[in-house]
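hey can u run this one w/ pyridoxal-5'-phosphate bound, need the structure tokens asap thx
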Amino acid sequence: MDILGRALERQSTHGDALLLCVGQPSTGAPSPVVAQAETAVREDILGYTAASGTPELKEAIAGYYRRRYGVEVDPRRILITTGSSGGFTSLFLAVCDAGDEVVLARPGYPAYRNVLQALGVKLVEIDVTDPEHGFQLRVEDLEACTPRPRAVIVTSPSNPSGTVMDPAELRRLAQWCDENGVVLISDEIYHGISYGAECRSAAEFTDRAVIVGSVSKYFSMTGWRVGWLIVPPELVEPLDRLHANFTVCPPALSQQAAVKAFDHAALEELDAHVQRYARNREILLTRLPAMGLGRIAPADGAFYCYVDVSSITADSFRFAHELLDATGVAVAPGVDFDPVQGQRWIRLSYACDTDDIEAAMDRLEAYIRA
Ligand SMILES: Cc1ncc(COP(=O)(O)O)c(C=O)c1O
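ok here u go:
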């Protein structure tokens, strides 16, 4: 956020900022969503909804899981949240007590670490940057934990690394968690954005896992603040109560509009964005190694390249600031995602225009060679 703030300042003074630091699409919501929002604004009073969300949106999400993954999800097990982030605190309050242990990958999405820590939950962070891990957790990591952890969080495709967990490994993890009474929390908010790798939902392998979903990434609707949790039956009521107290309900307008995000017409528009991400990704995967930055996490999905910059800096935070000042290119330093090894890494988001990716690579190359 610090880099983003400075990049926006740079944009106002120099007009040349290229924002490869932000984790969001550069496009708006698909047109059926916008049309539905216009109608809802005119015709609906937009009052409170049920705390766990509207039945229509839950049905739409259940239908999407049926079509996309071939699984039947009871809509009563779906809770709509204010962005997926809006479900984190209540989820961890419902699942964990202070002092419990939760396993998560390092590097990983920082909000998980921060929210868990704020609730007094102990983090068991596993460094997944070595080749054996390939940037994802494995069953062996959980087996090594004594006592058994309360929960494990997996994110596939991952932020920041973009790596996708092998479906067989996800199945193995889901089975292991079921057998050992560990809550599997599967963050699948980048599903829909992958480049050949198969993104399977943990919901295909178990109905005991918690699935975290969102319209923010593939659906290109970050600011609409709609996400969802699919939970085992016994978590529905506690979460419903917590949400009613924390937020009353997710935004009514966004919920009404989001119902249309799963229609064929919307998905067609969204797939066109993914094709652009694929072109941008190709450019990065060609140009970065050519400038000596060849150690890149397998960029299987999401719109991120996680790049080892230890050949040119020992401090990615400083590097990100200096690069921005010298060139206008804004990247996210790895320390945001990995407090231990992150000084070796930067994350590039390629959800922007292809011209911006080309320009950013030109400037980065000139900066490194200077
Ligand atoms: C892995 C992951 N999970 C969850 C979120 C939260 O997204 P939102 O609250 O917009 O659904 C993000 C945002 O970048 C993310 O990268």
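The chain has two domains: 2-29+266-364, 34-261. anyway lmk if its weird
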